[in-house]
Amino acid sequence: MSTERPQHAPSSTGVLARAQNIRCVYGGGEEDFTAVDGVSIALGEGEVLGLAGESGCGKTTLGNALAMIAAPPLYVLSGTLEIDDGTIDLSTLSHDDVKRHRPYRGRTVSMLPQGAMNSISPTLRISSLIKDVMRAHDPRITKDEALDLARERLKMLEMPVRVLDSYAHQLSGGMKQRMITVISTLQNPRLLIADEPTSALDVSSQRMLVEMLLEMVEQRIMSGVVFVTHDLPVLSQVSDRLAIMHAGRIVESGPTRQLVEDAQHPYTRKLLGSVLDPSQETRARGIARRSAPVTPEEVGER
Amino acid sequence: MSESRADDMITRSATSGEILLSCQNVTKEFSVAGSTITAVDDVSLEFPEASVLAVVGESGSGKSTLARMLLRLMPVTSGTITFRDQDVTHLKGRDLREYWTEVQAVFQDPFASFNQFFTVGSLLRRSLALAKISKDEADSLIEECLGYVDLRPKEVLHKFPHQMSGGQRQRVMVARALMMRPKVLLADEATSMLDATLRVNVLNVLHDLRNELGLTVLFITHDIGQACYLADRVAVMEHGRVVERGTTEEVIFSPQGDYTRRLLSDVPDLRGSLKP
Predict the structure, then answer these.
(1) Which of residues 265-284 of A touch B (CB under 8 A)?
(2) ipTM surpassing 0.90, yes or no?
(3) The CATH number of domain A3-118+187-301, selected from 3.40.50.2300, 3.40.1010.20, 3.50.50.60, 3.40.50.300
(4) pLDDT digits (tens, 9 = 90+) for A48-82
(5) What pTM did the predictor assign?
(6) Does A187 reach chain B within 8 Å, measured CB to CB?
(7) Which of A202, A234, A274, A280 to mutate to test the interface with B (most CBs of B within 10 A)?
(8) Do B51 and B216 contact (CB within 8 A), yes or no?
(9) What's the start-to-end Cα distance of chain A, in Å?
């Protein structure tokens, strides 16, 4: 069942990007597994689109397809991305496709992968990492230019410039994640795909990251964000619109407030009903659940 | 901060049931580049049987270090850990292995907890073989415990850890801990990689095991909503110290300390927005 609302498309200033009919499969085994099944999304200029759904529903795969970083055994069978008056064929069926996508990566679409903050080399200062990343994308840029750009960006976001001289182990999880976010947007991508950027952070660090991302959109460091997470409360704070994925498809989408207040699809309602906030209602549910016998339906659910 | 709540802790918890596990004045110091960092600073906690204590706090507050000391994976700098009225602070050898059959843990990074060269089936069977459980009994235990966390043996037993999602790995970790039928489960951000629906399922499993088998749970989390759903009592840690504690209702609905209030105010609200 699909509950596409009329507001599915962005209604604000203009359309930044439109992805059409993305189909992704994991192959290489006895049979292919379809992870994303004909998904189309649109994003307005300056908009944050929240992409939510349970583990394995295909949200990270969709993010990888949009960021053009799909690699075997993941294959993008079809899909286009209309952005900046051009249309990019997202399909990756051969090594040539990978080369074809290279110019778009980091500039047109940048990816902030899940767990990226744990991938910072422990032997490099943040400044060296920045130089490496920038020169990988543009060999003409000098090291000084790369660092000047990073300093300027940190000042703009009111972050301490001294972080550039640090090693990863000297930074808190929240600071590492904010630095990785800054690095992945140094080239001012039109679109940022942020995959679970807040999942490993405590609530205070989550809030700082979310506020920084919104500031970056406000300053037009990037023109739009697809924010992928299973954490609906975080999404409701950051996104203009929500798209709910289930089994490789978008089952419902719409403006965040409307979707949270008046979800139509049973799966969306189930997701929203599973959110545990520190409220009297959650406490009452917990106490009721504690004293209630397990029902056969729940055994089945497990 | 509520010092009186901290003082009341022992009195209150003692009325809830027999104290199974406790730590008294536990401190952990690390030496880093010539200076000393106190990760856990004079913490005393008690775990009555069949109760859930949530320890909440931001990253770096000492929650995981505390769990590692209670599990005896890390020596204490000072203080005492007691299990069933026995001092287990310096257990070794066979005694320590016996302690681990009763006190199990699920950690926040399941990828770091599995040997990458073994399938899930090998890992689970090996755990049970170490506990001298017969193969037939092991197979039925594995099926039962994977069922608790919504996994089917056919789907996961043949897979290597890298072939599973983070959520699946975390669920296998929970199943592995439950297989030993522990009396105490130290769950350190055990549901952080699970989506909302699965998370509720796992929390419900903990509710049930507490009710039916009298499982005692130390639930470490930065998600106060989960503590609100599951815990009987909550302790809040900041910079290695317990700065507030009490019943779940007391700490979450009428917090006394500034730090607890700030933690609660940072929790994202489903119906709130940070958009300008």
Answers:
(1) 270-272, 274-280, 282-283
(2) no
(3) 3.40.50.300
(4) 999 999 878 999 999 999 999 988 889 999 999 99
(5) 0.81
(6) no
(7) A202
(8) yes
(9) 23
